[in-house]
Each structure stands twice: as structure tokens, then as C-alpha cells.
Specification:
heterodimer; A: 250 residues; alpha/beta; Rossmann fold; six-stranded mixed sheet; 36% helix; globular; B: 285 residues; MetI-like fold; binds adenosine-5'-diphosphate; binds magnesium ion
Chain lengths: 250, 285
């Protein structure tokens, strides 16, 4: 079960209290959207789940985050194993300036693979899982930078899928894309949900409404409301949520 | 009311001054090259480039000096490149900002400012005498290598810093360790900068006489070195010798030697630039 259980999470950047007492349970094989105005701590929360915040020297965290019965905030956490299990898709498509093929095998070269699976197979399956195989099967040697932005973002997801993660974190994955590409990536997310738990940060409320099963609304570092996406959008319980959804701020 | 310059006039004056300053800086280079070519081109021949010096260096060729300089360039790089790159990786990727690191960095900056004759004396006392390597290619290469280190470290640090931050982030987020990230997601993209920086600075350093003076250079050795423990002739020192110690030498031999040294340096620079363009084309982002 790849739930993420967050218990009383607090995070500081130096003295700045960026996450205040966040508790929530993110459900397995569902899409959970985190929404809220810019600067409210969405990316920060997402980056706690794969401990990418550790790269920032001033960060300090308290609380617990449990994935597979392990508190990933404990100092003994194996970050390599955690990040293999919890992969991340970034705001801007960021393929390496390498061929399509080499982009996907990047993670494989690092982690090694079981001998029964060949690189070729994994590349094919990864591209199929992001619906790029038909477009790119004859262009595997082509530089990833020559692809369209949407294809690049799909490739980044394929690169991630190749290392067999269980949870996908996506930080505004469509913000660099046009509406048509955005719609197609959203379809892909719904497809991917069969195999992965997905947490997506978005400042686009419609996107949250369209793709997610659960929605968390954050404001100034606090988790204001977290519920079924339907409930949040039709019957928000908190005034702040309602104000945000009706466009009164942010 | 005070009279002010017409802005158009002052603009013109500023432009002229700037242009003149730029021209002045390249005049010496152009003059040197013209003078050296004019006086030396007549000495250049296949024989001059490929035969041993004869007649107390007043005739014959400069082959052993060319070969010697070639060995020294390559040999010094073999030591300085890996050491410099590893040191730079440590300093820019691993070292914490503390007193020790500051001292290291300060040391490197100062190393770059040490006069080359001091390196020569240092090489003499450490490699030649203390480590008993003798006056040899090995001692010369090590001395040159130490002199090359600061610029290689600086070039490598700059190249590492210019690799987009997102490459590291992606690599780490895929579960790579810090070292794997540096090895696979940073170094390949820093390589053009590292190589160019190395070649360009080494090209200049191998043109120096002082560091090889006491450590490797032979006054007159009309044969090729047979091992790294041999002495060797080298272009810069040979040029110094024939211009100051050999009375009655034909002018065109001196200038011809200078011309070969300049061409050697320039072609190394060219190689550096070609490598950079090649690698850049492969990896554009
Ligand atoms: N590296 C950092 N150092 C200090 N403060 C930061 C850092 N990163 C983010 N913050 C601050 O934390 C808050 C939350 O940022 P972030 O999680 O990026 O917001 P969001 O993704 O919701 O726009 C912001 O006020 C931001 O200024
Ligand atoms: Mg953000």
C-alpha cells in the first residue's frame, strides 16, 4: 500500500515557518491535488515526500511522514531507495541533452537492472506507458531537446517510470504547456493512476477538479481543507477554501 | 549657465577612445607575429623541423626541442588534469563553507600569482633534489603540472557551476547518489569547459622557460630522450640559449625557433577551441 501518511509536519526555511502542522493521508492509486495561491507551500510539501528539500541547507523539519510503515523523515532513511520509490516530475520539462533512449536509460545505468529485462525492453515499455512509443519508436536516437514541450514532459515521466517508482510527485507539470497538451497530459495522469499513486501540485483549479480524486487546499503554510475533490469543489467546509475557489484571492 | 558638451560629440569621442584602446591592445600581438614571421620564415624547412642541431646549434634543426616540448606538454597535463579536476570537484561540490575551505581557496588563488621562476626553484628542490628524480622529464612535468593546477581548478569550478541546476535535481530525484550525479549528470556537461580551459592555459605555460630551467631542460642534447628520467631540450629554453649564449648565430634561426614556438602554442589553442566546438555541438541545452 503506497499511502502517504503525514503527521504534524512542520517545516522551516531558517526562521521562516513554511509548513505549519500539516496532517493528511494521501491515498494509494489515487490522484491527490494540492492547490492554493502562489507561495503557500505546495512545492515545499511535495518536496518533503522525496526529501528533495534536504538539498537546501537551511531546512529543518519536524513530524512524521509514513510510507510503507517507515518514517521517511527519520535520519536513517535511505534517500536513494526513497527517491527510487517516490519519483518527481518537474514544472519545466527537463530532459537531459541526450538522445531519447539515453534519457530513459539514465536511471537504469545508475540503479542497474535485473538481467532478464533488457534496456531496449524497458525503453519500449516506458515510452508505451506515456503513449510516446508510436511517435518515437523510430527516433530513439534523436536528441530529446528536439521534441515538443509536451513530448519532453512525457519523456520525463517515462524516464521516471523506467526506474519503477510507486508514487509520482508532479509539481505543476503542465504550466509550460499549451491547453491542448495540458489536456493530453491530464489524460495520461488518469491512465497512470492505475499503477501509481499521484500527487500533483497545481495552481489551476480546473485542472484539480478535472483530474484529481482528492484535493488539498493550502494557505500560508497551513492545510486548510482536505477532502474528496467533489466535496471541496461543490461544498467546501471552510470559508477560506470557498473564497479561493470563487477567485477572491490568489 | 554652464556650457555642456553636445551629447553627440561626447558619444563620438567616447567611441573613438574605446576603439583606440581596443586597437592598442592588439598592436603588440600583431607586431610580434609580423616580426617573427618576417625574420624567421626563411629558416623554416622540413630539415629544420626534423633534424638534430649541428655545429654548436648554429646549423641543423630543432627537432629534439620540439619533441621535448611536446613531451612536457603532454606529461604535465597527465598529472595536472586529473588532480586539478578532482580538487575542483571537491571544492565546488563537497567542501563545506568553512575556514579550511577558505584557506584552500586562498592558497589556490595565491598559487596562480607565484612567479614562474619560483616554481622552477621549488621543482628543483622538491623533485630534482629531495625526491631524487634528477634533472629529468619527470621533474619538469611535475613542476609544470603544479604551475598549471590553479588555472585548471578555476576552469573546472567555473565549468561545474555553469551546468544547469536542474540536471543535478533530476538526477538526485531519480535516486542517484551525489557522486553518481556528479559523474553522470554534471561532469559530461562541464567537460567542454574543462578541456578548453586546460588546453588554453597549458599551451601558455609550456611556453615558459623558468619552470623547466633547473628541472629538465638540456642546454644541448642532440638526441631524443629515451625515458622519463632523461633530460630533454625544449623550445623555450632552446630559444633562450641560442639568443643569448651562441654568438654569431644566424638571425633567422633564432626567429625561426620563435616562430615554431608560437605556432606550437597557437595550434594547441586551436585544438582546444575545436574540441570545445565539437563537444558543444553534441551537447546543447
Ligand atoms: N529555499 C528557500 N529558502 C527560503 N524560503 C523558501 C525557499 N523555498 C521556498 N521558500 C518560501 O517558502 C514559501 C513556500 O514556497 P513554495 O513551497 O515554493 O510555494 P508554492 O509552491 O506554493 O508556490 C514561500 O514563501 C517561499 O518564499
Ligand atoms: Mg511551487
Amino acid at each position: 500500500m503506497n499511502d502517504i501518511i503525514v503527521e504534524n509536519l512542520n517545516l522551516w526555511y531558517d526562521k521562516f515557518h513554511a509548513l505549519e502542522n500539516v496532517s493528511m493521508k494521501i491515498n494509494d492509486k489515487k490522484i491527490t491535488a494540492i492547490i492554493g495561491p502562489s507561495g503557500c507551500g505546495k512545492s515545499t510539501l511535495l518536496r518533503v515526500f522525496n526529501r528533495m528539500n534536504d538539498l537546501i541547507e537551511t531546512v529543518r523539519m519536524e513530524g512524521k511522514i509514513i510510507i510503507d510503515d517507515e518514517n521517511i523523515l527519520s535520519p536513517e532513511t535511505d534517500l536513494v531507495a526513497l527517491r527510487k520509490k517516490v519519483g518527481m516530475v518537474f514544472q519545466r520539462p527537463n530532459p537531459f541533452p541526450l538522445s531519447v533512449y539515453k534519457n530513459i536509460t539514465f536511471g537504469l545505468e545508475i540503479h542497474g537492472i535485473n538481467s532478464e529485462d533488457s534496456f531496449d525492453n524497458i525503453v519500449e515499455n516506458s515510452l508505451k506507458s506515456v503513449l510516446l512509443w508510436d511517435d518515437l519508436k523510430d527516433k530513439l536516437k534523436k536528441s530529446a531537446l528536439e521534441l515538443s514541450l509536451e513530448q519532453q514532459q512525457r519523456l520525463c515521466i517515462a524516464r521516471l517510470v523506467a526506474v519503477k517508482p510507486e508514487i509520482l510527485l508532479m509539481d505543476e507539470p503542465c504550466s509550460a504547456l499549451d491547453p491542448v497538451s495540458t489536456a493530453r497530459i491530464e489524460e495520461l495522469m488518469i491512465e497512470l493512476k492505475k499503477n501509481y499513486s499521484i500527487v500533483i501540485v497545481t495552481h489551476n483549479m480546473q485542472q484539480a477538479a478535472r483530474v484529481s480524486d482528492f484535493t488539498a487546499f493550502m494557505y500560508l503554510g497551513e492545510l486548510i481543507e482536505y477532502n474528496d475533490t467533489n466535496n471541496i469543489f461543490t461544498r467546501p467546509e471552510k470559508k477560506q477554501t470557498e473564497d479561493y475557489l470563487t477567485g477572491r484571492y490568489g | 549657465m554652464k556650457k555642456r558638451f553636445n551629447p553627440k560629440t561626447s558619444q563620438k569621442i567616447a567611441f573613438t577612445i574605446l576603439l583606440l584602446s581596443a586597437l592598442v591592445t592588439i598592436i603588440p600581438v600583431v607586431v610580434i607575429i609580423i616580426v617573427v614571421i618576417k625574420n624567421g620564415i626563411s629558416a623554416i624547412s622540413w630539415e629544420f623541423l626534423t633534424s638534430m642541431p649541428k655545429n654548436g646549434m648554429r646549423a641543423g634543426g630543432i627537432f629534439p626541442a620540439i619533441v621535448g616540448t611536446f613531451y612536457l606538454t603532454i606529461g604535465a597535463t597527465i598529472f595536472s588534469l586529473p588532480l586539478g579536476v578532482l580538487a575542483a570537484i571537491y571544492l565546488s561540490e563537497y567542501a563545506k563553507e568553512n575556514r579550511f575551505t577558505r584557506i584552500l581557496n586562498l592558497g589556490i588563488v595565491n598559487l596562480a600569482g607565484v612567479p614562474s621562476i619560483v616554481y622552477g626553484l621549488f621543482g628543483l628542490s622538491l623533485f630534482v633534489i629531495y625526491m631524487k628524480l634528477g634533472v629529468s622529464i619527470l621533474s619538469g612535468c611535475l613542476t609544470l603540472a603544479i604551475m598549471e593546477l590553479p588555472s585548471i581548478i578555476t576552469a573546472t569550478k567555473t565549468a561545474l557551476n555553469s551546468v544547469p541546476k536542474q540536471f543535478r535535481e533530476v538526477s538526485l530525484s531519480l535516486g542517484a547518489t551525489k557522486w553518481q550525479t556528479i559523474r553522470y549528470a554534471v561532469l559530461p556537461y562541464a567537460l567542454p569547459g574543462i578541456i578548453t580551459g586546460t588546453v588554453l592555459s597549458n599551451a601558455r605555460k609550456t611556453g615558459e622557460t623558468a619552470p623547466i630551467l633547473f628541472t629538465v631542460a638540456a642546454f644541448y642534447l642532440p638526441r631524443l630522450p629515451s625515458s622519463v628520467f632523461d633530460q630533454t631540450m625544449a623550445l623555450p629554453y632552446h630559444l633562450y640559449v641560442i639568443s643569448t649564449q651562441i654568438p654569431g648565430i644566424e638571425k633567422n634561426i633564432t626567429y625561426g625557433t620563435a616562430l615554431v614556438l608560437i605556432i606550437f602554442t597557437l595550434s594547441l589553442n586551436l585544438v582546444g577551441i575545436i574540441i570545445r566546438t565539437r563537444l558543444r555541438k553534441q551537447k546543447k541545452w
